[in-house]
Known about the structure:
By secondary structure, this protein is of the alpha+beta class. It has 2 domains: about 5-40; about 60-330, Neuraminidase, CATH 2.120.10.30. Helices cover about 15% and strands about 35% of the residues.
Amino acid sequence: MSLKSRAFLQSCIQHTARWTFTLSVLAAVAYAAFIAVRFHHLDTRIYAWVNTWKKPAAPATGAQGRALQNYTLQSGTLQIAGVRRNLSGLAFDADHQQLVAVVNRPATLLRLSLGGQLLSSHPLEHAADVEGVAYLGQGRIALLEEGRSRVLFAQLPDAKDSPVDLQKAFALQLSLNAPEKAGVGTGNQGFEGLGYDAKRDYLYVAKEHSPRALYRISGIAKPQDAGAANSISIENLNHWVESDSIVGTDLSSVEVDPTTGHVLLLSDESQSLVELDQSGGFVGRVALSSWRDKNASIPQAEGIAIDPYGVIYIVSEPNLFYRLQPRQAHARR
């Protein structure tokens, strides 16, 4: 082989190596971008961050709120032993001084201590894709099926780890176009969170996004049966959650402060918690990152609960638990 041919071959090999390396890097970057957008919602997080800086949140109404910025994280992040993944909704059980939570797949009801320890686990039969839970009092709970867009009403089981059969449970349909099979039709953008105001008999239902939505259901305080639907009314509160700069780009959960009746809205994509008054007026907002004082992060905030003392509990996928306490309450609890 002549020197000229050898030089040409060497040049071809070098160019091929460069292009192979370049294409490999571009493929890796594209794959990383896909993972960041598909599973970590990086696009909406950047959008929310930019909008937070560009557009200030609405002025506070003057209502006395929880001063969320003054909360501190207690004991860092706890991985709930006995729960592997898909931890979702959360609620405070005032009658038993416990927490109830749900796992969406497989559909499971959990009882937790206020410190995040698993007390019992109850399979939810004839239910799927359960994303939200609310405690209604006297052992009654409401469960939110995202795929079927409906709320199921049931009783907490007495026996430890016993299943809950929901086949004949009273169900409130939230959509006229609900699919026949659970888990299809809405994707991961349907009804996501429940929060109950026991004093006023209001059940709040949050829809995650595309578009965001918030509804308030009244008339569920009494046990339900097939003929009780006429006593139930549903109010559209979508105007409360129209602004990205106030509530964030998605709604992953909703809760009601039992002391004030204020509504707490949790946003996973925007990594924020917002407090609204009983009329939907803006009271305050805090970034979840502000609570990382013990090197803890909340990667995918899915559920929130609050007790009468103002202690806030948050759960995150896959199985993470956080307890946040107002500074002035430290001496009491």
